[in-house]
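haha ok so turns out i had the wrong file open the whole time. this is the CORRECT one, sorry everyone. sequence first:
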Amino acid sequence: MHLKHLSLLCCFISINTFGQTLTITNGSKEKTFKSGSVYEINLGEGPIAGEGYCCDWSELVGTLYSVTEDSLFMEMNSYTRKMVIDGIKLKHDLYAKDATNFGRFTREDVFALKNFKSLKSKKRKTAFIIVGGLLLFTGIATAGNYIILSDDDSKKTILQSGAIQVGTGIGFLIMSSSKKYRFKGHTSTWRIK
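then structure:
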């Protein structure tokens, strides 16, 4: 009985320790991601510019543990379904973010992919977006106080403070960006090798 549990534990540890490398190509360009990388994969058609409504798609975050001729297998940290209906964006989490779920999907379903070194790196980039947006907003609000002040020295100080906040906010937003590889509906499309 204990041997059965030990073999299941070893299998689970091997899946968590060793991930699957992934190689994508775009003409002569080739990009290989390290094993154990965390991916944000969008399935479906993705957001399409249209007449007020478009589509629905799924966003999976996790680590690949197998790549076959027609399918990808992923250990998912989160699975989110997103829909845009009549200009309203709806988001529905289907699995808890802390639970480990395994999923399979076909290569043809992949709309876009982002790669992160780890789940911690993805969370850090999300935090940078929040902090950058807040700094950008507060910097603009601070610089807006320029209109209210009558003292020229105070105006100069307020403008400098606002500019520093806006610059720092833009810096955080730049640090939060990750390259998105598109597989459908884009002029430069990638494919999974």
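The chain has two domains: 2-118+178-192, 124-173.
again sry for the mixup
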